[in-house]
Specification:
Length: 693
C-alpha cells in the first residue's frame, strides 16, 4: 500500500520491528519464508527502504556463532557462492536467510528476483532457487544448508515458490524431487541433524491439485516453516503420522482485509539443541489494529427492509463499536494508529448502499474509509452446504482473475498450435510479473515444438494446404498427449526466460518466427530442423537482388537480406508472365541458400538438365531483378551445416509436373500459363536449396 498516505509505512515498521527483535534476542540468524516484497518489481522507494533497514540491523561487529559446513556454491547460486558473513569486506552480525515467494519470484531473461538485488548487496542469503529446466514436469534436487554450532547441527532445506499445480505433480512423480541428506561423519550420524524445511506454497485444501499436502513431505524432516498463507498460526502443529511439526507465521501486515488476517501477528523464536527445540511466540506491537466482523441483515431485528436509514444506523453502530474495540486494545501503546475496519454484509433481500459515501464520515477515524463495507449474498449452494470456513475462500486479489481455459471454453475456440495451459502461464507472467516477453516465449516454444513434430513425418509424404492445417491440429493433440505421458501439463518456456542466444535471434530479425510464409507452403519436408532460418543473419546478401519485388505477404523490414529476397523471389515468380520453363529458371537463379547438403547433390542432375533444356531465347527474355545464373558455389557452405533435406526433391517433383504441363499445352497463351502457375505452385519458399545451380 505504498501509494496510500495512511498505510504506506506499515510494512516497513513491521519489518523494522522484526529485525529489532532479532537483535534484542541475539539470534543466530533470521529466517524469512518468502514474499519479502509484495510486488515482483518493487519500486525504488521500497528497495531503498528495505536496504536501509537491513543495513541498520545486519551490519555490525557482533560475531556469528555458527558455521556453514556444506558446499556453499550449491546452496547460494549467485556470483559469489558463499554465505554473506564470510565475506572479508563486510561485517555481518545478523545473517538473514530467505527464499522467494510467489510475489517476488524470479522472472525475465536472466531469471532474477528482487531478492537477488539484496543478495548481490550481501545483505541477504538467498537460497531455495530451483532451475526446473526443459519442458515437462521437471526435476529438482534440494541440497540443505548444513550449519554447526557446538554439538548442535541443523540442516536447512529451502524450496522457493513453484506453481502449485506443477509442484503437486512433481511430488506425485517418482524421482522428480530428490532430497539430499548429510553424509555420515565421524561423531555425527545422519539422525543427529535437525532438519528444517522452508517452503512457500498453498496449504488450503479448496482445490487439492492447487495446493501441497503435508503428507507429500518426507518423514525425516523435523520442523516446517510454511510461508504463503497470510493467517498467523504461529504455534507449531504436529502432523499426524508424519513426525514433524508445522508453523505458519503468516504475513507481518494485513494485505487482504479478511477474517484470517485480523488475528494478532507474531514472529516465532526457535531455540534448538540437539534434536529438541523450544518455540516462543512474540507478538508484533507495531502492526496497525484490524477489526473484522460479519453481519446478516435479515437476522437483525432492528432493521426495516424498506427503510434505508435503519440499515445505515445499524451499520454506523457496528463501525463505532469496532473502532472502540480497537482503541481499547491500543491503550498501552504510545503510538496510537488509525484502525483498519472491515464489515462483511450479507444483504440478501435488502438494498445495498454506496460504500464510498458511507465511509466519508469516518475519514480520520479509520485507515480505510473507502472500503469499510463489502457486500455479499449467500449463494444457494452455500446455503445447502452450510457455511464455508474463511480459510477455504479465495483471496480477494484472486477473485477477479479468469484463466485462459475458461475464456477458451466460453468462446468455443479451437486451439490448433498454442495449448491452453501454456497461454495461461504466459498470461500470469505477463500480468503478475510484468514479463513483456512472456507471450513471445510461449509462441516461440510451441512453434518449434510443432515444427519438430512435422519434421518427423516421412519425406515422401506431401500435404496440400488444407491437409497442413489438419496436420498442425493433430500435432497439438500429439504434443499434449506426449506431455501427459511425461506427467507434465505445462511447458517450461518461462521458468528461465529467454536465453541470450534467443534474444540475439530476436534482435536480428526474429529468426525463428519470421523466415517464410510457412502457413502457405504446401509441401512439408520430413527433415526440417526445428530451428530453421537461424543462419540467415550471418550470411552476406547476394548481389543483384536489390530490385526484387516486395509485394505480397512479406514480413516487413527484415535485417537479413537473404531471407527477404528469397521470399521476394518466390513472390516475383507468381507475377511473371513468361513461359513456365522461363519462370522456373528465374526462380532457380533468384533464390539461393547457404547450405551444401547431400540431398541437394542428389537433386542437381535432374534440375540442371531441365534448366539447360530451356532455349537461349527464353533465357534472354527472363524477368528483371534476377541475377545472372551462378556457375560457382559462391556463398555455399557458410551455414552451420544443418540442411533442409527433403525439400529439394519435393520441389523438383512439383516443378517437373509444372514443366510437363507446359509441354502438353505449349500453344496456350501466357494468361493460361500464369493461372496454372498460381494453382500448382503457390510458393517455392524454403524449397530452393538445390535449385541454385
Amino acid at each position: 500500500m505504498e501509494k496510500d498516505e495512511i498505510r504506506r509505512h506499515d510494512s516497513f515498521k513491521a519489518f523494522e520491528e522484526i529485525c529489532s527483535i532479532a537483535e534484542d534476542k541475539q539470534v543466530d540468524f533470521l529466517l524469512l519464508g518468502g514474499d519479502l516484497f509484495h510486488e515482483n518489481k518493487p519500486s525504488r522507494t521500497t528497495l531503498v527502504k528495505a536496504i536501509e533497514i537491513l543495513r541498520r540491523h545486519c551490519l555490525n561487529d557482533k560475531p556469528v556463532q555458527f558455521q556453514v559446513v556444506s558446499d556453499q556454491t550449491v546452496n547460494f547460486q549467485n556470483a559469489f557462492g558463499h554465505v554473506n558473513y564470510e565475506d572479508p569486506h563486510f561485517n555481518v552480525g545478523l545473517p538473514v536467510f530467505s527464499i522467494h515467494g510467489n510475489h517476488d519470484d524470479p522472472a525475465g531473461v536472466d531469471n532474477l528476483s528482487a531478492i537477488d538485488i539484496l543478495s548481490a548487496c550481501n545483505l541477504v542469503n538467498y537460497f531455495g532457487k530451483m532451475n526446473l529446466g526443459g519442458s515437462g514436469v521437471g526435476q529438482i534436487t534440494l541440497y540443505p544448508i548444513l550449519m554447526r554450532k557446538g554439538s548442535t547441527t541443523v540442516a536447512l532445506y529451502g524450496l522457493g515458490n513453484i506453481r502449485d499445480e506443477r509442484l503437486n505433480r512433481m511430488f506425485q512423480t517418482p524421482h522428480a524431487i530428490q532430497w539430499m541428506r548429510p553424509e555420515v561423519q565421524e561423531g555425527c550420524d545422519v539422525s543427529d541433524w535437525f532438519n528444517i524445511l522452508v517452503l512457500h506454497q498453498n496449504r488450503v485444501k479448496s482445490n487439492p491439485k492447487n495446493a501441497i499436502s503435508e503428507h507429500f513431505l518426507p518423514r525425516f524432516l523435523d520442523f516446517i516453516v510454511w510461508g504463503h498463507e497470510h493467517e498467523c498460526l504461529i504455534d507449531p502443529q504436529e502432523v499426524s503420522g508424519m513426525g514433524f511439526h508445522i508453523t505458519q507465521p503468516g504475513s507481518s501486515v494485513a494485505t487482504s482485509l479478511i477474517d484470517g488476517e485480523s488475528k494478532p501477528k507474531h514472529v516465532l523464536l526457535l531455540e534448538i539443541k540437539g534434536n529438541q527445540y523450544r518455540p516462543t511466540k512474540i507478538p508484533l506491537t507495531s502492526v496497525r489494529p484490524f477489526e473484522y466482523t460479519e453481519i446478516v441483515l435479515k437476522d437483525e431485528d432492528d432493521i426495516d427492509p424498506n427503510d434505508q436509514n435503519s440499515i445505515l444506523e445499524h451499520l454506523d453502530k457496528v463501525v463505532r463499536d469496532l473502532i472502540e474495540k480497537a482503541s481499547k486494545k491500543a491503550v498501552n501503546r504510545s503510538d496510537i494508529q488509525l484502525p483498519l475496519v472491515r464489515i462483511k454484509v450479507d444483504y440478501s433481500g435488502f438494498m445495498t448502499i454506496n460504500p464510498q459515501r458511507f465511509g466519508q464520515k469516518y475519514v480520520g477515524k479509520v485507515a480505510n474509509p473507502q472500503d469499510i463495507l463489502i457486500f455479499s449474498k449467500a449463494s444457494k449452494k452455500g446455503q445447502r452446504e452450510g457455511t464455508i470456513d474463511d480459510s477455504e475462500r479465495l483471496r480477494p486479489e484472486e477473485l477477479n482473475q479468469q484463466n485462459i481455459e475458461a475464456l477458451v471454453a466460453e468462446s468455443n475456440l479451437k486451439m490448433e498450435i498454442l495449448p491452453v495451459n501454456d497461454l495461461d502461464v504466459a498470461l500470469q507472467n505477463f500480468v503478475n510479473k510484468d514479463d513483456k516477453l512472456a507471450f513471445y516465449s510461449c509462441v516461440q516454444y510451441n512453434l518449434q515444438e510443432t515444427r519438430g513434430k512435422l519434421a518427423k513425418d516421412s519425406n515422401a509424404q506431401k500435404f496440400e494446404e488444407d491437409d497442413l492445417i489438419l496436420k498442425v491440429g493433430e500435432c497439438l493433440e500429439e504434443r499434449l498427449k506426449d506431455r501427459s505421458t511425461r506427467a507434465s501439463g505445462s511447458s517450461q518456456f518461462l521458468s528461465t526466460g529467454l536465453t541470450s542466444e534467443n534474444l540475439t535471434k530476436r534482435s536480428s530479425g526474429i529468426a525463428n518466427a519470421s523466415f517464410s510464409d510457412d502457413e502457405d507452403t504446401t509441401q512439408i519436408s520430413g527433415s526440417v530442423p526445428a530451428t530453421r532460418g537461424r543462419r540467415g543473419s550471418s550470411t552476406a546478401p547476394s548481389r543483384g537482388r536489390a530490385k526484387a519485388p516486395t509485394r505480397g505477404r512479406g514480413r516487413g523490414k527484415a535485417s537479413s537480406a537473404m531471407k527477404q529476397t528469397t521470399l521476394d523471389g518466390s513472390l516475383g515468380l507468381r507475377q511473371s508472365q513468361r513461359s513456365a520453363s522461363a519462370s522456373f529458371k528465374s526462380a532457380s537463379t533468384i533464390v539461393e541458400d547457404d547450405v551444401d547438403s547431400p540431398s541437394s547433390e542428389e537433386a542437381e542432375p535432374e534440375d540442371l538438365n531441365k534448366v539447360d533444356s530451356s532455349s537461349e531465347e527464353e533465357e534472354n527474355t527472363r524477368g528483371k531483378g534476377r541475377k545472372r545464373q551462378a556457375t560457382t558455389k559462391r556463398g555455399r557452405g557458410r551455414g552451420t551445416g544443418t540442411s533442409k533435406r527433403g525439400r529439394k526433391n519435393e520441389s523438383s517433383s512439383s516443378l517437373h509436373r509444372l514443366l510437363s504441363s507446359k509441354d502438353e499445352d505449349e500453344d496456350e497463351d501466357d494468361e493460361d500459363i500464369e493461372k496454372k502457375l498460381n494453382r500448382s505452385q503457390p510458393r517455392v519458399t524454403r524449397n530452393y536449396g538445390s535449385l541454385r545451380r
